[in-house]
Amino acid sequence: MLKRIAVMTSGGDSPGMNAAIRAVVRTAIFENVRVWGINNGYQGMLADDMFEMESRNVSDIIQRGGTFLGTARCPEFETPEGRAQGYEHLAQRGIQGLMVIGGDGSLRGAQKLGQEYGIPIVGLPGTIDNDVWGTDYTIGSDTAANTIIDAINKLRDTASAHRRIAILEVMGHHCGWLAMIAGISGGAEYTLVPEEKYDLDQICQEIHQDYETGKKRYILIVISEGAGSGVDVGKYIEDKTGIETRVSVLGHIQRGGSPSVIDRVKASQLGEQASLALISGLSDIVFGYDRGEVVSIHLEDAVNNKKQLDPEYMRLARVLS
Fold first, then answer.
1. Whether 240 contacts 201, CB under 8 Å
2. Which CATH code of 3.10.450.50, 3.40.50.450, 3.30.70.20, 3.30.565.10 fits the domain covering 4-140+259-304?
3. Phi, psi (deg, nearest 5) at residue 124
4. Which terminal residue of the chain has fewer beta carbons within 10 Å of its beta carbon, N or C?
């Protein structure tokens, strides 16, 4: 049984991270385990910026987006010298295990630290992109998807009034989950994702025909940033069709906001299970969900495998467009 652990958030922030931190800390305290919070991710670890946490430190945070511990990029941690410095700061406090909440890059850094120094590592998937292998859900993805839907609902009003083509660019460099979920639930005519090729000329031809026949009064297109620039796609479509086109790039607003009920509850469940596992001395695992059940995934598998977008989503999007 470990008696001293630390928790940190890393990479892009996501709604629900605070709920996860809260669950990790309060579970550890309930089990009479001391827990440290590391400020600003790996940067804080290298700067020795950490503090011992009490229950009151995680009061009044479950409803807040972002992460109260902060997060930052840290290229230095990618070097052996940087990881050595980080581990030294953990060892000075007698910290025996580390909890990392973040995406695949953050988890990969934790894996290296565990391999080099033998410190137990447990991860939680915190990313709005929902792109961590082995889990159906990542912390923050539900809130981000709902933020996008709120934007789509508003864009529909103005697109319909002016008979325009509305294009919404959302986050997702390598994974189109956010775009696909938003496209299906928002009723988009086209959803463009990096996992699937698309033909802009064919899309323009179909749009022109739909307008000419009166089949469509307006068109909504959702595009993942990894599938192309929404601005470039919008200009191309407007030039080809002659139809007024407006582009909205949602940007970092997708990361913010009070977490949804789903993100609060699931992050809390994952945080408790991960905390118990780390205290028990388990290592090299990430906790996630598979068909509604909490599961553990081997850390090496989580960081070395690429999550595939569900082909059923892509099929459904085409059928319902």
1. yes
2. 3.40.50.450
3. -125, 135
4. N
CATH architecture of the domain covering 141-256: 3-Layer(aba) Sandwich (3.40)
- How much of the chain, in percent, has pLDDT values that exceed 90? 98
225 class by beta-carbon count within 10 Å (0-12 exposed, 13-18 middle, 19+ buried): buried
Name the phi and psi angles at 153, rounded to 5. -60, -40
Please give the span between the terminal C-alpha atoms of the chain, in angstroms, as a whole number. 54
What pLDDT is stored for residue 321 in this prediction? 85
Instruction: State the pTM of this model.
Output: 0.94
The pLDDT tens digits for 171-196 are 999 999 999 999 999 999 999 999 99
129 given a catalytic annotation? yes
Nearest to 110 by CA among 130, 138, 83, 129: 83
Tens digits of residue pLDDT in 98-157: 999 999 999 999 999 999 999 999 999 999 999 999 999 999 999 999 999 999 999 999
Q: Which of 13, 129, 142, 284 is catalytic?
A: 129
What the block records as the tokens of 19 is 């709920």
Residue 134 DSSP label: T
